[in-house]
Amino acid sequence: MAKNWTEKGLQNLIESEVEESLTLEYKSAEALAKSDYHKTEITKDVSAMANSAGGTLIYGIREGGDPEHRHLPEKITPVDRTEFPREWLEQVINSIRPRIEGIVIHSVTLDSDEKEVAYVVEIPQSHTAHQAKNHRYYKRFNFQSVPMEDYEIRDVLFREQIPDVSVRFFIEKKILPEEEGGSLAVSLIIQAKNYGSSYARYVACFVDVPVKALVRIDNRRNIKDGGRFYRHRLTNLNQEHADETFRANFPLLRSMTMSWKIPLKENYGQIEDTDWSIKWKVYADNALPKEGKLPFEDIEIIDLTGRL
Q: Does residue 156 sit in the same domain as residue 175?
């Protein structure tokens, strides 16, 4: 989701014909009204996004009226903020039960008039199911907010019972102290964070790193893919077959992070390879595993040497 919204950014959506999707919906200014019907529609659309994948809801952009341009942004339709201040919209949204945590409402000032704005509502995916003002549950489906089936509500409620662990990667460069040689040390940092509501008792992250980039090989049985990759088994608890554990030997609580460090060669970025990337897979309790592949050139570098 964007952090800073401007009128130019809204115009770019229109000029680029960015279509509505599961995570993006346009609403004209007329969608904001003080009748019970319109308030219910607001809570219906916001709760549907939270119950699905999260997303962005823009009040102040009208979609095309003819079938050919349906779901495409047509033009900005300003909202009068003296009649519908941001606090009013926030109050309507807060009537959703339970309240959705993490919603951000951006007030985008328009050049046409100082009292005219557009509201951009950023909605996170929730870890539970939310009811609209009419006491019904909705989800996003085919550009619309539609009622949820019983099994879908149960699936969303189950989100609260499982952790949601994701990983990030960094390249750290620093100069070692004189007593340790004073040389340049380069490391791959693997950081795991739990975004879920439930803590993760067991976390295991498998990271395959090109052998040519590594300073050392501790266990040749971990060499994979014809000798090209070395698999690191990283865990949060002391386990017999792990290569490295998180020092705290502790469950991964909500919003908590833990990290592991893998030493790399100083010239890791100059080695030629047809597949110069790392592969990863992370497991956390009963949650479905996540996996991915990341080129070395796309990994953020943390330079502690002052050379960059």
A: no
- Are both 172 and 157 inside the same structural domain? no
Q: Tell me whether strands 165-175 and 116-123 are parallel, antiparallel or unpaired.
A: unpaired
Q: What is the pLDDT of residues 2-17, one digit of tens each?
A: 458 999 999 999 999 9
Instruction: Tell me the per-residue pLDDT of 61-115, one tens digit each, with 9 for 90 and over.
Output: 999 877 777 889 999 999 999 999 999 999 999 999 999 988 999 999 999 888 9
Provide the residue type at 288 as one letter: L
- Asked if residue 26 lies in contact with residue 94, where contact means CB atoms within 8 angstroms, the answer is no
- Domain of residue 234, residue span: 165-303
Whether 253 is covered by a domain: the verdict is yes
Kindly report the pTM of this predicted structure. 0.60
